[in-house]
């Protein structure tokens, strides 16, 4: 495992994202209310550049015929088959065992450091 | 008929210490004369059932051309005229139940289009009359027959009343609805019916055959079929639509103990449906956020299928499909007596893997229907 | 990958150089105005009004309905220009030849069959001019107003000899099942020109079409989309039962975007019925499953995805996929299958049949003919 500087955290405002290339792979960097996350830019389904998908909220699991909208800005929809992923964990919403590879992110000074 | 055909008799399962029970999940007892059924209707509409030819029932025009009933045993009168094979319970008991080694048969009757009849009260009254008549003339006198609570679902309130009326009767083992419908059965207006089923611990059975009659849409999603052959070949598509609807409308989240039997639909379409449905759900999950598991999980847990008719295939293909759809648990033997045009029901299952035979012949039904199947009525 | 047509290369050698044929690409029509040069003047008032009314379905995808990462910023479309599709799809996924299925299939269930027929013809000419003639990698479909079979037959005959067109195309949404003999003029025209007929899902429950299922209208897009394959099954059964493949033994019929492994149900159930119910269908001389295997083709997309891969291969074996299944991407729709990943567990020879050879058998030599005279 190695640590890599991937961006300046100022470059990614809250709600934003940045695609970077590091250690031979593409990552998506996300800022959710001041906390940063790094996901590999490959969907485990059929290999799309998943981090380019829409950042949305979603209908949370609920009782029948109830609709509870939440997690605005925390859900990534794959641009292809629209699978929903929790950006904070990389896990799909329909099955936590199906997930995008995620990497720990630290803020060091004004830089974001990802451990791959 | 001058030919004696060797008849397979249900054999005991290997290594079992109890008597093998052969449960026939689908026996179409016949109404020979509506005048005999009418007295069992509530007084208000009784005379409507008693009219010559019986109550008005919207029919589709699909009719099998050719000899009826296959090799089903038929009574003949003094002049040699053949009678209906399923009009007389004593005949059915002697010539089918006893001779073929069936222990219990579940009666499903002749009326499969009740849910698309335009007059709600007539439909409900017909259901009540048939249920009372079935109990009185078929079920009470014979321990080998169990009944279904037939209901007309277009008026859920009356359907619920009928289920509550008979739901604790030991002679009844399930609720029965024709699958022909104006609306997919997951719709919320039907949920009280499912509540009533689980209230009485009764599975729900759906039966094709009314499609295209009365208020129902055309029997396929692309219009009216030309022939009975085409119509009957297409009918499993009805079940597919209902499955989709019941799962997406959260019926199995609201009623986790509800079980649904799909009669006469075959099996070979299930893998496609399960897999297509799962694939779409992963994408569209947020549209129905109460569907919390893969749709295929609900399908495997809640739906049962019957053997008559099974698709033609090589036996290894059948084994593969049974593996995919968990047929060792979900497949129920059905005789479909007396509609044996497609063959003898026991011969139809000779391709079953040997290890599944006793499960399909009886164990799966016993697990599904429970003790009520053997209780005195 | 471009084929050098000038060289005299044996057909089979040319086939062996192909890597992938895509039977379903939905090229966009950026604006109805692009049809104006191809549309007779008497229909121009419809253009002045922004086109005819278009019955719309209720059901809507939870996402955008298309591959969000494939949108061209210049026109806001994912398939707005041939060059964009070549870049985003053909090159990226190593597709040699793509069959265009367009975005107007639903015209066959709109109520005014006269303007829809005019638009279909104009659209077909536009396809040839913009997408096919200038590019060797695209082939077109003759879109037909299925609600007017006689006009459709005339359209098939009008373009039937054009090397740029490789099939007839209609919506699977319909008022009457496609085995019915009202459609036989279309099939006669198709076989006269050696063209397969393809039907494609999407417009169910709209316009003059029936409800999307035989028990009415589903509530959700999830059901609606999953229910699509029922229209395919119904048409397949109708074609077999009404004797279309007996009347037109050389007719090839393709089911596009309806999923794949429902074919064993049609084969198995109809074969079970056939022995008892011949009286109604005495004109059939083969078992129903034999017609299906001889005349029918099924596109892969959306490929079913069981957790257990061998299960899918088992179902494909039952329907002789080595003969009957053709690859489709459905670009740029959301349920696109990535050919570089979705079939990696397929045996190599089966994959080759699905990726190339079955499409060659279905479309014939026309698939490799030059489009310069299209």
Structure description:
The complex is a heterotrimer of chains A (116), B (377) and C (374). Chain A has 116 residues and is an all-beta fold. Helices cover 0% and strands 47% of the residues of chain A. Chain A has strands spanning 3-8, 17-22, 25-32, 35-40, 54-59, 69-77, 84-86, 102-103, 105-108, 111-115. With 377 residues, chain B is an alpha/beta fold. In chain B, 37% of the residues lie in helices and 10% in strands. Chain B has 15 helices and 8 strands. Chain B has helices spanning 34-37, 43-49, 89-98, 120-139, 156-166, 191-199, 228-234, 236-248, 251-254, 270-284, 295-302, 315-324, 327-330, 345-348, 357-369, and strands at 23-27, 104-107, 145-150, 172-178, 204-207, 260-263, 303-306, 331-332. In chain B, strands 1-2-3-4-5-6-7-8 form an 8-stranded parallel sheet. An 8-stranded parallel sheet of chain C has the order 1-2-3-4-5-6-7-8, with helices on both faces. In chain C, strand 4, helix 6 and strand 5 form a beta-alpha-beta unit. The radius of gyration of chain C is 20 Å and the shape is globular. The model of chain C has no long low-confidence stretch (mean pLDDT 95). The A-B interface holds A 58-68, 81-84, 92-95 and B 188, 249-250, 253-254, 279, 281-287, 289-290, 292, 294.
């Amino acid at each position: 495992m190695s640590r890599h500087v991937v961006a300046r955290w100022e470059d990614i405002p809250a709600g934003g994202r940045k695609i970077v290339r590091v250690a031979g792979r593409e990552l998506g960097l996300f800022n959710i209310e001041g906390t940063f996350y790094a996901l590999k830019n490959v969907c485990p389904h059929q290999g799309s550049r998943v981090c380019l998908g829409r950042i949305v909220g979603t209908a949370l699991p609920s009782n029948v015929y109830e609709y509870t909208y939440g997690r605005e800005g925390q859900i990534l929809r794959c641009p292809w088959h629209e699978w929903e992923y929790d950006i904070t964990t990389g896990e799909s919403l329909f099955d936590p065992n199906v997930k995008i590879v995620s990497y720990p992110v630290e803020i060091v000074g004004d830089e974001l450091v990802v451990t791959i | 008929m001058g030919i004696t055909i060797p008849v397979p008799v249900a054999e005991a399962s290997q290594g079992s210490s109890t008597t093998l029970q052969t449960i026939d999940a689908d026996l179409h007892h016949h109404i020979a004369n509506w005048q005999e059924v009418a007295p069992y209707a509530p007084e208000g509409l009784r005379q409507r059932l008693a009219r010559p030819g019986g109550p008005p029932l919207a029919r589709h025009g699909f009719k099998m051309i050719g000899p009826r009933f296959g090799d089903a045993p038929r009574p003949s009168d003094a002049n040699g005229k053949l009678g209906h094979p399923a009009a007389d319970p004593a005949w059915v008991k002697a010539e089918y139940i006893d001779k073929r080694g069936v222990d219990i048969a579940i009666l499903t009757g002749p009326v499969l289009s009740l849910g698309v009849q335009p007059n709600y009260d007539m439909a409900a009254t017909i259901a009540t009359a048939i249920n009372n008549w079935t109990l009185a003339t078929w079920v009470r006198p014979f321990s080998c027959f169990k009944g279904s609570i037939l209901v007309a679902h277009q008026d859920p309130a009356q359907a619920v009343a009928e289920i509550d009326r008979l739901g604790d009767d030991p002679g009844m083992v399930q609720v029965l609805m024709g699958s022909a419908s104006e609306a997919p059965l997951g719709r919320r207006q039907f949920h009280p019916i499912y509540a009533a089923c689980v209230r009485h611990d009764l599975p729900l059975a759906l039966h094709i055959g009314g499609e295209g009659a009365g208020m129902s849409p055309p029997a396929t999603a692309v219009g009216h079929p030309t022939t009975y052959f085409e119509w009957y070949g297409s009918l499993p598509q009805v079940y597919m639509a209902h499955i989709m609807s019941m799962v997406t409308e959260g019926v199995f989240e609201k009623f986790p103990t509800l079980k649904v039997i799909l009669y006469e639909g075959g099996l070979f379409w299930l893998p496609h449906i399960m897999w297509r449905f799962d694939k779409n759900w992963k994408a569209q999950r947020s549209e129905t956020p109460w569907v919390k598991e893969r749709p295929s999980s609900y399908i495997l847990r809640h739906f049962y299928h019957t053997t008559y008719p099974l698709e033609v295939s090589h036996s290894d293909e059948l084994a593969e499909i049974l593996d995919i759809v968990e047929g060792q648990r979900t497949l129920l033997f059905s005789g479909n007596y007396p509609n044996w045009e497609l063959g003898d029901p026991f011969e139809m299952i000779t391709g079953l893997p040997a290890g599944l035979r006793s499960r399909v012949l009886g164990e799966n039904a016993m697990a599904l229907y429970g003790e009520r199947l053997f209780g005195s009525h | 990958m471009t084929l050098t047509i000038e060289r005299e290369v044996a057909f089979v050698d040319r086939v062996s150089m192909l890597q992938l044929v895509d039977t379903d690409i939905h090229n966009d029509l950026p604006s109805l105005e692009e049809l104006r040069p191809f549309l007779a003047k008497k229909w121009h008032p419809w253009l002045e009004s922004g086109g005819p009314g278009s019955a719309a379905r209720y059901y809507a995808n939870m996402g955008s309905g298309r591959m969000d990462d494939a949108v061209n910023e210049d026109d806001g479309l994912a398939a707005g220009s041939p060059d964009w599709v070549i870049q985003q799809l053909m090159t990226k996924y190593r597709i040699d030849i793509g069959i265009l299925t367009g975005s107007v299939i639903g015209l066959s269930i709109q109520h005014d069959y006269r303007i829809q027929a005019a638009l279909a013809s104009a659209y077909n000419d536009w396809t040839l001019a913009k997408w096919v003639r200038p590019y060797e990698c695209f082939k077109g479909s003759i879109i037909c107003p299925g609600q007017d079979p006689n006009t459709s037959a005339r359209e098939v005959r009008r373009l039937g000899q054009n090397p740029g067109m490789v099939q007839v195309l209609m919506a699977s949404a319909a008022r009457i099942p496609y085995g019915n003999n009202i459609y036989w003029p279309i099939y006669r025209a198709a076989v006269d020109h050696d063209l397969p007929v393809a039907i494609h899902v999407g417009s169910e429950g709209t316009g003059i079409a029936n409800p999307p299922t035989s028990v009415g209208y589903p509530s959700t897009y999830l059901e609606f989309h999953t229910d699509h394959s029922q229209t395919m099954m119904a048409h397949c059964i109708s074609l077999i039962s009404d004797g279309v493949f007996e009347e037109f033994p050389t007719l090839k019929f393709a089911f596009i975007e309806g999923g794949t492994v429902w074919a064993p149900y049609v084969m198995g159930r109809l074969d079970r019925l056939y022995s008892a119910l011949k009286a109604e269908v005495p004109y059939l001389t083969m078992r129903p499953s034999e017609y299906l295997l001889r005349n029918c083709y099924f596109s892969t997309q959306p490929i079913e995805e069981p957790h257990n891969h061998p299960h899918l291969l088992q179902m494909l074996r039952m329907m002789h996929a080595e003969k009957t299944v053709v690859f489709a991407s459905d670009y740029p729709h959301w349920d696109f299958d990535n050919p570089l990943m979705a079939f990696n567990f397929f045996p190599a020879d089966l994959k080759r049949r699905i990726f190339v050879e079955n499409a060659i058998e279905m479309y014939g030599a026309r698939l490799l003919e030059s489009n310069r005279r299209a």
